Amino acid sequence: MARWAVETRSLTKRFYNHLAVDQLELKVPEGSIFGLMGPNGAGKTTIIKMLMGIIQPTAGEGFILGQDIGDKTGEVRHRVGYVPDFPNLYPRFQVKEILEFCRRTYRYWDSQRCNQLMKVFQLPLQLRIQALSKGMKTHLALVVALSIRPQLLILDEPTSALDPVVRRLFLQAVVQEAATNGTTVLYSTHQLSDLERIADHLALLNQGQLLFCRSIENLKASIRGLQVVLPEGIPAEIENLPGVIGIEARGKVFTLIIDGNYPEIQMRIEKWGPIYCENIDLSLEDIFIYTMKKEGYSHETPLLE
After folding, report:
1. With contact defined as beta carbons under 8 Å apart, do 56 and 47 qualify?
2. Three-state secondary-structure class, residue 258
3. 9 with 150, same domain?
4. Is residue 24 situated within a structural domain?
5. Which one of 33, 48, 66, 130 is most buried, by most CB atoms within 10 A?
6. Residue 214 lies in a domain
7. CA angle 185, 188, 193 (to 5 degrees)
8. pTM (2 decimals)?
9. Per-block average pLDDT, block size 10, for the chain (305 residues)?
10. Coil, strand, or helix at residue 230?
11. What is the 3-state secondary structure (H, E, C) of 67-128?
12. Residue 65 domain boundaries
């Protein structure tokens, strides 16, 4: 039987008249690198804050490492590393003072690992937190999160302020943590290329609701592209076929985005005598965009006129 590092049951959060998270049913397998993706306002950060006990749910239940998220006193709190989008560290502390504070606070603090990570990220021990850039604060938050030897690592938009070189270094540290220690990673980000590089499971959220939750392997096998050139163009009826979630035209070449009904649609295309017909791999960004369009989310209106 599968075990879940994170599990929610009808988890709901309402802010006055705004429903931020709507009866979320989510299961994050132990040992996975699990990506949370969705547009702005989808509810990703709200979910993470509920899991961390920062805000309370309106209804429903949530569990991390088997413990109710409402319990702030248990052993599990020493086993969860957290890197928020804006690390909230004591601004007047020096870096070395933050590390000493954490060493005294966390039961499983690993000083040797902390020293190794500090060398990797080259953080100055004498600087005060208020003098650090946002990227350096993110590095420090990751050092702390990994030095507690976490069973679960929760990351909320951690690479938004990092340059490409440092971002890759950050991702390598996360992957190494998961591969070496079996740590479960829950990773919320807009950087879909990050998820494509490291995640093995994905959940897509929109307006507080879960649209899908799949393994990367299953997702890419299910949502696929088919490039075709037909003698008389694409018949209008194909847009209404079950499984066609998008059509993109470039000259005479049409790309069909297909979710789950691939063999039948391919057979239909073959009957029309295509001049050219080829399967293509879709990027995670393609899958995200076309799935969101299917849900009515689009930014095709020009920004300037």
Report:
1. no
2. strand
3. yes
4. yes
5. 33
6. no
7. 95
8. 0.87
9. 84 94 95 93 93 94 92 80 89 95 93 92 92 90 94 91 84 91 94 90 92 88 86 77 82 85 80 85 85 65 43
10. coil
11. EECCCCCCHHHHCEEEECCCCCCCCCCEHHHHHHHHHHHCCCCCHHHHHHHHHHHCCCCCCE
12. 4-207
